[in-house]
Specification:
The protein has ten helices and 42 strands. With 881 residues, it is mainly β. The protein has two domains: 784 residues, Beta Barrel (Maltoporin, Chain A); 41 residues, no CATH class. It has a 22-stranded antiparallel barrel. A five-stranded mixed beta sheet has the order 5-11-12-9-10. The protein has a four-stranded mixed beta sheet with strand order 28-29-33-32, covered by helices on one side.
């Protein structure tokens, strides 16, 4: 096996046309060209992410790196890049959140237990722009949406599992994902896949493809695309809680403590008949599951050699997708469907529109655009340059139907446009690499560069009906009753006497009279963005870095990096990193690194606002998220946000023993001033509710419309310090048999987190427990691919360890789970093959939830990283030309 400690100058010069040095990463280099779906087939894969300028082998890298070839990507039956990574990298996790505002459409991911905004995503070694969505609650992550990148565009994927902020900039605390695009100048591929879940729902149809064109004799243009259509799934049952119960076999049926049968227009017969249309999807009023989704995505990659030493390059993308999902069901008496006293003194209830209650249906249309262009080349064989400019934009436009603005009473529409969110980035980059002979075993590689980044986050105002506070946002809106300290002492005003004379049942001395009812403001489920919270948040930043590395001797590699970044909204930061790799023998090596990092809160995280229905105490209430700098949050004790800082340590071992390639890497990430939402603060207009009433007064003083209808408030803070530690184990072995060849890859991650500071000032008991215990500590993936003549067979096992969930003083422990995937394929002709497979072939599900986080119709914990959709079977046809 080839075991070079460094690449010779002749090879380095030959590779220089393939290398794209960037202040945010460097592209992969390979000693062989590939057809669009051909795996990288060489003795050792060559990488340079993690060590700038000079390519290295995986085993010689000073930091842990995974490279996945086109064949590895193709062997994962998913087409969503998020799901592909989840099935290749055990420390990369993803969950499905069916009722979580925009997170239903842009799924939050994590790596090594840290959210996606602490993982830098690169495309062709250039930073990928962020999505417009700030995840509500929890870590409030705002990272790139990997789903906008069609898998058909990917040539290879490189995952650097190490802190790298000193090399690549803010966000690279947990690692770097570098997606390398196909660069074919001819040929192409197409894939058609159809499938559905064992439950008979979630039908999926996807067409992906790629085609390459030559640009004269010296260039290429590679175009990839994807069209997909996905149906919703329902993993639910009719909800039955103490607050309301729709199960006719339960003694609580229609008699929950919050279920109000006195709402005008209510009759059991009409209500039961109306239940069938309460939700626009599914058999139950809350159809928990994946959303309906459809998308069209395209990505191009191009390059042109102006000379032997100078090249132009450009790549870009366009993605348009739409998804829809449900919110919680609204039942009579839940603060939304209430009796209201109209201006003529008569009574009104939304049951006149929705006789069985209603479940708001939420739509998100996401448009994502990116373009990058640059020029790279050599001043001479020891001095290279790369100049580039990029623009990226992601916008999500919301729509809401099957709901009301309760405060508008009978004047409320049932369809709303609550506004839009947009994130834009523009960056200029200049990067240089010098190779200097200093007497070491290899030349000293000196990479350095400058960057300018402009970021903007825009909250677009919704239509007026989606946020306006109507008459019924206030008690007694028409002045029917006298304002006294006690309702019992209130008497009708002249206006009240007039409606009573006309036959109204108004009773000012009865605190339960509808005249005193206050209901929510804005489109129920997702109130629109009002003018006061619709604005642009902008900032810019400058960066300079230097990265020096060399093989000092035949067995010792050293690397050091410094990076300085200055933000217009935060103090400057200087971070550093040191790394080394030592050969103990031809087949065994040690590697280690230590470095510091930081992540500045994004403009979106600093400015986002939202009022939605959440379950802070196991009961749905309207809950408001406000910026930390807002009057509301400041009145409740919020502090201005500041950057997170980190210190990363890794220690690794690499070996090639008896044909088994093994790497094991231990890591420790100490993260200070960690960004997280505080636990929801209760809000109540009841003067006897203590702190909750104080919070209500703070909202009123800040001029928040409909403060009396808000049940909770939270905001983001630099909440606490944590340590994340664990290890990754990867082993690969090829077996050659008389009946074909088998490649087996086993990867394993153990990860745990702990608090380094007391979180009790910002997190309640439940959130503190769940922060540490909600996700499995152990994750493993074993994949075996066997080929024999025209057949291929694939088996994959996904293992999730045990985990725990806390609610209302109870703890539920969930058992470990194994999900098995199988695929068999046959090569029909030289250009066409067909595959039949099953994901989660044994239709395995996690344990049913028995405490609060699996409530209101949920059978499984919907926020779990452990899949809960059940088995899925598919047929795939692939062509190459």
């Amino acid at each position: 096996m080839l075991k070079e400690r460094h690449i010779s100058k002749a090879v380095r010069v030959a590779l220089s046309g393939l290398l794209s040095v960037s202040a945010l990463g460097v592209s992969f280099a390979s000693l062989a060209q590939e057809t669009p779906d051909q795996a990288v087939d060489q003795t050792e894969k060559i990488v340079i992410t993690g060590a700038r300028g000079a390519p290295r082998t995986i085993s010689d890298s000073a930091v842990p790196v995974d490279i996945f070839s086109a064949q590895d990507i193709k062997d994962v039956s998913f087409t969503d890049t998020n799901d592909i990574l989840k099935n290749l990298v055990p420390s990369f996790n993803l969950n499905r959140q069916p009722i979580s505002d925009g997170a239903s459409f842009i799924r939050p991911a994590q790596m090594r237990g840290l959210p996606s905004d602490k993982v830098l995503v690169l495309v062709n070694s250039k930073r990928r722009h962020r999505a417009s969505l700030v995840q509500i609650g929890g870590s409030g992550t705002q990272g790139p949406d990997l789903a906008t990148i069609p898998s058909s565009a990917l040539k290879t994927v490189e995952v650097l599992r190490d802190g790298a902020a000193a090399q690549y900039g803010s966000d690279a605390i947990a690692g770097v994902i570098n997606l390398h695009l196909k660069d074919n100048s001819e040929g192409g591929s197409i894939n058609v896949q159809v499938g559905q879940h064992y439950e008979g729902d979630g039908e999926q149809f996807t067409v992906t493809g790629n085609i390459g064109f030559a640009l004269g004799d010296n260039g290429f243009f590679s175009l990839s695309g994807e069209i997909s259509d996905q149906g919703f799934t329902e993993r639910a049952e009719q909800p039955c809680e103490d607050s309301y119960c729709l199960d006719p076999d339960d003694p609580r049926f229609l008699t929950g403590s919050d279920f109000d049968t006195t709402v005008v227009g209510y009759s059991e017969e009409a209500f039961l008949a109306g239940l069938e249309s309460a939700s626009l999807e599914g058999e139950n009023v809350i159809p928990w599951g994946q959303p309906n989704a459809e998308a069209v995505r395209v990505f191009f990659n191009s390059g042109y050699d102006l000379s032997d030493t100078t090249s132009l390059y450009a790549f870009g993308s366009y993605s348009d997708s739409e998804s829809d999902s449900s919110f919680f069901y609204r039942f009579p008496g839940n603060g939304t469907i209430e009796n209201l006293r109209l201006e003529d003194g008569s009574l009104y209830s939304p049951l006149s529109l929705f006789p069985g209650g209603f479940t708001p249906r939420f739509f998100g249309e996401i448009e994502d655009v990116s373009i990058l262009a640059g020029i790279k080349g050599e001043f001479n064989e020891d001095f290279t340059y790369d100049f580039s400019a990029r623009f990226g934009s992601n916008e999500i436009d919301y729509r809401l139907i099957n709901t009301i603005n309760p405060s508008l009473g009978p004047d409320s529409p049932t369809e709303f446009n609550p506004g839009a969110l947009a994130n834009e980035e523009f960056q200029l980059q200049a990067d240089f690499v010098n190779y200097v002979e200093v007497g070491f075993d290899s030349p000293l590689t000196v990479a350095y560069g400058l960057s300018y980044l402009d970021e903007a986050y825009d909250i677009t105002e919704g239509e007026e009906d989606s946020y306006i506070d109507g008459d019924f946002a206030l008690s007694d809106p028409f002045g029917f009753c006298t304002d006294t300290d006690s309702v019992a002492d209130s008497t009708p005003t002249a206006a009240g006497l007039a409606v009573i004379a006309d036959g109204s049942s108004l009773d000012c001395s009865n605190e339960d009279d509808a005249v005193y009812n206050v209901v929510g403001v804005g489109s129920n489920g997702f109130p629109g963005f009002s003018p006061g919270f619709s604005e642009d948040f902008e900032r810019d930043s400058y960066a300079a870095y230097i990265d020096v590395s060399s093989d000092v001797t035949d067995t010792l590699f050293l690397q050091g990096a410094l990076r300085y970044e200055s933000y217009s909204d935060f103090d400057p930061e200087l971070v550093w990193k040191l790394a080394t790799q030592i050969d103990l023998s031809d087949n065994v090596g040690l590697r280690a690194s230590i470095g510091t990092g930081f992540r500045a809160p994004t403009p979106g995280q600093q400015g986002t606002t939202n009022v939605s229905t959440r379950l802070p105490n196991g009961v749905p209430v309207a809950t408001g998220l406000f910026p930390a700098s807002s009057d509301v949050a400041q009145a409740l004790g919020a502090e201005e946000l500041r950057p997170e800082t980190s210190t990363n340590y890794t220690l690794g071992f690499t070996a090639d023993l008896a044909g088994v390639n093994i790497t094991i890497d231990f890591y420790r990430i100490e993260l200070d001033d960690r960004f997280n939402a505080i636990s929801t603060l209760d809000v109540s207009s009841d003067p006897d509710s203590g702190d909750a009433f104080d919070n209500f007064l703070a909202l009123e003083a800040a001029g928040i419309a409909g403060a009396a209808s808000i049940g909770g408030v939270f905001f983001f803070q630099n909440s606490f310090d944590t340590t994340t530690q664990g290890f990754d184990l990867v082993a690969t072995k090829t077996f050659d048999w008389d009946l074909g060849s088998t490649v087996v890859t086993a990867s394993f991650n153990y990860n745990e987190q702990e608090f380094d500071s007391d979180p009790s000032a910002v997190l309640n008991e439940e959130d503190t427990f769940d922060f540490i215990n909600n996700d499995p500590n152990v994750r493993g993936i074993v994949t075996a691919r066997h080929t024999i003549e025209d057949w291929h067979f694939l088996v994959r096992a996904n293992y999730y360890g045990s985990y725990e969930n806390f609610n209302a003083g109870l703890v539920q422990e969930f058992d470990p789970e194994i999900f098995m995937d199988f695929e068999a394929g046959y090569q029909l002709t030289d250009n066409w093959n067909v595959s039949l497979g099953a994901r989660n072939a044994f239709d395995n599900f996690p344990d049913r939830g028995v405490i609060g986080d699996a409530s209101f119709g949920r059978i499984y914990r919907s926020d779990s990283v452990v899949p809960w959709q059940g088995g899925f079977y598919y047929l795939s046809v692939n062509g190459n030309f």
